[in-house]
Amino acid sequence: MRVGLVGTGRIGESHAAAIARRPEVDELVLADVDAGRAREVAGRVGAHAAGSIEALLHPAAVDALVVTAATSAHAELILAGVRAGTPVFCEKPVAPTVAETVEVLREVDKREALVHIGFMRRFDAGYARARRALADGELGTLHRVHAVTCDAAPPPAGYVPTSGGIFRDCHVHDFDILRWVTGAEVVEVHAYGANRGAPYFAEAGDVDTTAAVLRLSDGTLATVQGSRYNGGGYDVRMELAGTAGTIAVGLDERAPVRSAEPGVSFPSQSPWQEFWSRFRPAYEAEIAAFLGAVRDGGPSPCTVADALEAVLVADAADRSRREGRPVLVEEVRP
């Protein structure tokens, strides 16, 4: 299989290294707006560098296309791949706006194309185990869910104005995995935000700390909390509580929490500090699933439609924060 990858920044290089190790990949070809960087990364991971991005977008140029470029280029690259008849994997988000996401969705559906959007938590062993526990009745009737996403350190000031805001940039993962694990849709969101750190978040119209209550279609209540400043480390967890039991995702030996109880040493190892080390097995499983779908002609493990639903929840949360009221997801649906 010949795979093309566009975008050789930090996450692009990590994906490239994972793809290069896949046994079904005979050749990996990288491209970037910075051709020199593409060559450097290709040398490090054992791939080849294309002369241009366009060289990977022609029909039959590659068997699969992986998009890890800047968010502003996602929609254009997905559509180019789809129109060339090439299966596409793209890191989230599909596009900077809901309108562009809908445009991509219509084209993908019209062509019945294979497009996989990168929400890697669906491939994390802990989230998969929680989903099975709920589906198999181990938890009884689900009553509440709590999700946390906290960065160990904030992103650079220059990143924030183009990030889409904390709900789109960070919590969109919580919203997607909440739908995937529970099988329910988010109906309403009441979100709050605060700025407790550097002023550049507020200057960009964003916040660095969040709390939200979500009402699901089956009546379950969920809470989501987040921060750009978590001194304990990179903290991503989920707790599901039902009438027959409670299960927690991310509560391992590297969880960035400490017990206040006497004699308790758990967790005993150094805490996670960033997303790739925490979710590396999930990222690798995600790429393996995409390449398997390409090989076998299977369905997308995470569709553009799935991505749209998560973004709509994020937009509802952001509107709720700005307007100081609960917002129905249907209010932001085009």
UniProtKB/TrEMBL annotation:
Keyword DNA-binding on entry: no
GO molecular function: inositol 2-dehydrogenase (NAD+) activity; nucleotide binding
Domain of life where this protein originates: Bacteria
EC number: 1.1.1.18, 1.1.1.369
Domain Gfo/Idh/MocA-like oxidoreductase N-terminal, residue spans: 1-119
Segments forming domain GFO/IDH/MocA-like oxidoreductase: 127-247
Keywords: Oxidoreductase
InterPro entries: Gfo/Idh/MocA-like_OxRdtase_N (IPR000683), GFO_IDH_MocA-like_dom (IPR055170), NAD(P)-bd_dom_sf (IPR036291)
Protein family membership: Belongs to the Gfo/Idh/MocA family.
PANTHER family linked: BINDING ROSSMANN FOLD OXIDOREDUCTASE, PUTATIVE (AFU_ORTHOLOGUE AFUA_2G10240)-RELATED, NAD(P)-BINDING ROSSMANN-FOLD SUPERFAMILY PROTEIN-RELATED
UniProt-recorded name of the protein: Myo-inositol 2-dehydrogenase/D-chiro-inositol 1-dehydrogenase
